[in-house]
Amino acid sequence: MYHFNRVCFGLRCSPYLAMKTVKRLARDETDFPIASEIASDHLYMDDLGVSVDTPENGIQLAHDFIELFKRGGFDLVKFVSNSPEVLKSIPQANRLSSKIEFDKEDNMKLLGLIWSPVEDEFSIAIKFNPQAKCTKRLMLSTIAKLWDINGFCAPVILHAKLLIKALWVAQIDWDTEPPSDICAAWKRFLSELPALQDFKIPRFVGIVPESRVILLGFADASEKAMGASVYIFVQPASGPNEVNLIGAKSKVAPLK
């Protein structure tokens, strides 16, 4: 009889075991309370993203993260920051890139979003074949690649969901070409999809110490779909106010 001494990759239970192991590590290691709390609540599979107020706090937190995970036998690597001061404090082997100063093309992915550290902005990754045939299988495959966890592009994703609904209503087989109206709408959707690459979302929403923060929620519905969005209104002690979208959700109306 054999048993694993490591958390294996590729098994059906692997995602659960990985997250459970980290949560247990964060609970057991009490020497780093802030890092433990963040690791327990802000880790999504193998991505950990967090913001701090000052470079000094970032340097201390990065050090605590490395030591915390080292106690569990993990090497925490691929650190990246929009602060060169924070990056200089992190060992070379733990950084994402050998360069400290990031070029505008040095982007990284975080939960499906592209983050440019130098501009401190998110953008959407678009990968599709504009020449692909119009079939249910290829349409669903393309739509599944539109990963937008925060709903920044909810209106665009909703349009894709409506196309999926039209396919099911028409009872189209997987490799059968849909009716001409669906194909025309699909080709137009593909032709306009690259415009999302120019859509930029600021990571920093303006919250600083002593700010007044208000969350604003909106919702609406029609016969086709329903949607909701949440904005954050930040009123700092000095300087201009800021309003930014922080999340949205859309849902196609049911058939009945």
TrEMBL record:
Gene Ontology biological-process entries: DNA biosynthetic process
Name the UniProt record assigns to this protein: Uncharacterized protein LOC114252385
Lineage: Eukaryota, Metazoa, Ecdysozoa, Arthropoda, Hexapoda
